[in-house]
Design a protein that fits this description.
55% of the residues lie in helices and 0% in strands. By secondary structure, it is mostly helical. The chain has one domain (25-93). The longest helix is centred in the middle third of the chain and has 14 residues, at 49-62. The radius of gyration is 22 Å and the shape is elongated.
Length: 95
């Protein structure tokens, strides 16, 4: 009978199965800028990914909901979303 030799790496290997996968809710996905930016780029093709990424990041830096950027700029809803100087300044600081 032959003994199977296992390396230390094999013994520490983690087993993954379907329980290891978590489907994120829309809110959880939006926590990651890239997911939100990708979704908004597809939804608003007239705006570049760079502009959307900067707008979302500016909101996060200013501590303002990303709804501000989405509504004010992407949906052109300036009446209900007055200018927020913190977001504007943060937007200018992002390359």
């Amino acid at each position: 009978m032959r003994k199977e030799r296992r390396s230390g790496l094999d013994r520490r290997r983690t087993e993954y199965d379907s329980r290891s996968i978590k489907i994120l809710s829309q809110i959880e996905q939006d926590e990651f800028n890239f997911a939100l930016v990708a979704r908004l780029t597809a939804e608003f093709p007239l705006y570049s990914e760079r502009i959307i990424r900067r707008g979302i990041e500016a909101c996060r830096r200013a501590g303002v909901s990303t709804d501000y950027f989405i509504e004010r700029y992407l949906k052109d809803n300036k009446v209900n979303y007055p200018l927020n100087k913190l977001v504007e300044d943060a937007y200018k600081d992002i390359d």
